[in-house]
């Protein structure tokens, strides 16, 4: 990203959580003139050592009143925690009169998730509560979802856990979803129920942090309900082929029809094979377009404002950088 310009009034920004994504995001936010507060369950000296200008507060995410006190004077709150703790955070933010809340979504677009979502981790409840408070008068609290598709880091050595990401997602390990580059293996549903090639959007977590920081630079007052960002977009077949080409080895690829994957999921449910059941639910969600979208409105907005330089990383670049080119 180019040197930051002070295009907005200085804000006080709170970041809830201290995992890998929070750390990467805090690094980006600390480059601005905004005051940054990190809320965490425990101390994290690495934050303050690497970013001496930020403030870290140890809080109990089960204590709404304690959270409300910690959020006094905060303009923008970005959550990286899911579940009941995020619901408490939303409640506390509204009581503290936080102006804008960014929930812990950072995956596919909200509109592509089913009403009865087997992969839901409290997202539906959080978004419903945010809708309620956004319409409450006086002191409505606005919110914006940042959608980025899949983190490219899912496919890194060791999976998401190597980046301290995805602790509650069920896809921490390198063999938990779609492609295991270390084992040169993949498992996909190639076509959607309508017969179209299944596509996914991919964005590096480091670019997601840059996108969010750049959006903040533009100012959150007129943010839409959802910002969509994209590093790359491809079919799942091309994703596997890219990994194979970069590694220079053929991949063992299991290709399911949509109907076969449904039957497999039902079999796993009947036999209480829950890890495998979740695996097939993720494949089915991918085939249903959960991690894909056409228009990346945040890319377009930031390109117009010349705020994303260099551009977001493409997937092949990322694989080459992480795994090393076989050429």
Automatic annotation (TrEMBL):
InterPro entries, A to Z: NAD(P)-bd_dom_sf (IPR036291), NmrA-like (IPR008030), NmrA/Isoflavone_reductase-like (IPR051609)
Top-level taxonomic group: Eukaryota
UniProt cross-references to Pfam families, sorted A to Z: NmrA (PF05368)
Entry keywords, A to Z: NADP, Oxidoreductase
Residues covered by the NmrA-like domain: 12-250
Single GO molecular function: oxidoreductase activity
SUPFAM superfamilies according to UniProt: NAD(P)-binding Rossmann-fold domains (SSF51735)
PANTHER family xrefs: ISOFLAVONE REDUCTASE (PTHR47706:SF5), NMRA-LIKE FAMILY PROTEIN (PTHR47706)
Protein name: NAD(P)-binding protein
Organism expressing this protein natively: Coniochaeta ligniaria NRRL 30616
């Amino acid at each position: 990203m180019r040197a930051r310009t002070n295009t907005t009034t200085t804000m006080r920004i709170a970041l809830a959580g201290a995992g890998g994504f929070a750390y990467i995001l805090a690094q980006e936010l600390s480059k601005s003139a905004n005051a940054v507060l990190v809320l965490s369950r425990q101390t994290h000296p690495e934050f303050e050592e690497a970013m001496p200008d930020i403030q870290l507060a140890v809080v109990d995410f089960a204590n709404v009143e304690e959270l409300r006190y910690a959020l006094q004077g905060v303009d923008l709150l970005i959550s990286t925690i899911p579940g009941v703790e995020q619901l408490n955070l939303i409640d506390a933010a509204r009581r503290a009169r936080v102006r804008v809340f960014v929930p812990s979504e950072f995956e596919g677009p909200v509109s592509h998730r089913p009403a009865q979502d087997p992969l839901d981790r409290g997202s539906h409840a959080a978004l419903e509560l945010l809708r309620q408070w956004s319409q409450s008068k006086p002191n409505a609290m606005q919110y914006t979802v940042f959608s980025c598709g899949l983190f490219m880091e899912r496919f890194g050595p060791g999976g998401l856990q190597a980046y301290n990401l995805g602790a509650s997602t069920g896809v921490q390990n390198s063999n938990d979803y779609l492609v295991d580059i270390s084992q040169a293996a993949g498992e996909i549903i190639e076509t959607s129920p309508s017969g179209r090639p299944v596509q996914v959007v991919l964005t590096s977590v480091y670019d997601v942090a840059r996108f969010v920081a750049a959006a903040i630079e533009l100012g959150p007052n007129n943010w839409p309900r959802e910002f969509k960002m994209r590093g790359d977009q491809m079919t799942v077949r091309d994703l596997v082929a890219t990994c194979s080409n970069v590694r220079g080895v053929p991949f063992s690829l299991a290709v399911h029809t949509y109907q076969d994957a449904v039957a497999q999921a039902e079999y796993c449910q009947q036999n209480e094979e829950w890890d495998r059941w979740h695996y097939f639910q993720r494949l089915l969600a991918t085939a249903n377009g959960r991690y894909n979208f056409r228009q990346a409105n945040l890319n377009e907005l930031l390109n117009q404002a010349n705020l994303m330089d260099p551009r977001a990383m493409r997937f092949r670049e990322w694989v080459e950088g992480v795994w090393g080119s076989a050429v």
